[in-house]
Specification:
Number of helices: 7
Helix content: 10-25%
Keywords: Hydrolase, Magnesium, Manganese, Metal-binding
CATH topology: Deoxyribonuclease I, Chain A
Protein name: Exodeoxyribonuclease III
CATH architecture: 4-Layer Sandwich
Order of helices and strands: EHEHEEEEEHEHEHHEHEE
Oligomer: single chain
Radius of gyration: 17 Å
GO molecular function, one term: double-stranded DNA 3'-5' DNA exonuclease activity
Largest sheet: 6 strands, mixed
Distance between the termini: 10 Å
EC number: 3.1.11.2
CATH superfamily: Endonuclease/exonuclease/phosphatase
Cofactor: Mn(2+); Mg(2+)
Strand order of the largest sheet: 3-4-2-1-12-11
Length: 258
């Protein structure tokens, strides 16, 4: 089973790129972030024509997450991260697909830091950590996939000294992420590539993609039930070089049958 995550950076603007990638790689399940479209403008029919059922949580202009399935329609479990009833951002959706509990997330960027946006990011991480603990306690196979907007270590960023004051790399952010992982989650890409340079995002500016001046901020966290089923992982880096593409590349894992 192949599960992918992809920050599309506006699904309707990048739809030709998304459909081309889906057709060429045929993942079984896809988590999408940064849809940047209201609920009613989501391109459901185009995805159905490509063979994918979808559930989505849209928001005008910003945010937005979706889960696609190449098989049966995802069985929605939750939309919105618990812990703050006043949080109206469309950043989390959860579903059962082929017996696996899929959480798709788009964690806040948090810049400028310090400040209110950074405080919101840290609170969101605390809420995610609390919910993740409940998911682990369920003893079901769980994937938490998406754009975490977290650079976990210096190994995950080109020239880390330039990112010291950025919300993605501040000590508070990295410590919060490590607290989450320490619950018992496996960072899938780092399990497969423990020492390699591997990025998932390259800025549009300063020829970042051409220079491979990237970041690793799109992550898969796997519960113990899925850790032992992990057989492969990768980044479809070439997609970042396509015309009118997102600044993220699709990231994927392969799981053996349970």
């Amino acid at each position: 089973m192949k599960v992918a995550t992809y920050n599309v950076n506006s699904i309707n603007s990048r739809l030709p790129v998304l459909l081309r990638w889906l057709i060429e790689t045929t993942p079984d399940v896809v988590c999408l972030q940064e849809l940047k479209t209201p609920q009613e403008k989501f391109p459901e029919q185009a995805l159905l024509d490509a063979g994918y059922h979808a559930i989505w949580h849209g928001q005008k202009s910003w945010n937005g997450v979706a889960i696609l399935s190449h098989h049966d329609k995802p069985e929605e479990v939750r939309r919105g991260l618990p812990g703050d009833p006043d949080d109206t951002h469309s950043r989390y959706i959860e579903a059962m697909v082929n017996g696996i509990h899929i959480g798709c997330l788009y964690l806040p960027n948090g810049n400028p830091a310090p400040g209110p946006k950074f405080d919101y990011k840290l609170r969101w991480l605390e809420r995610l950590t609390s919910h993740a603990a409940e998911l682990l306690a369920s003893r079901t196979p769980v994937v938490l996939a998406g754009d975490y907007n977290v650079i976990p270590t210096e190994q995950d960023v080109y020239k880390p000294e330039r990112w010291l004051d950025d919300a993605l790399f501040r000590p508070e952010t990295r410590e919060a992420f490590q607290t989450l992982v320490a619950q018992g989650w496996t960072d899938a890409l780092r399990k497969i590539y423990p020492i390699e340079t591997i990025y998932t995002f390259w800025d549009y500016f300063r020829n970042a993609y051409g220079r491979n001046a990237g970041l690793r901020i799109d992550h898969f966290l796997l519960s113990p039930e899925l850790d032992r089923r992990l057989v492969a992982a990768g980044v479809d880096r070439d997609v970042r070089g396509w015309q009118k593409t997102s600044d993220h590349a699709p990231v994927w894992i392969e799981l053996s049958d349970g």
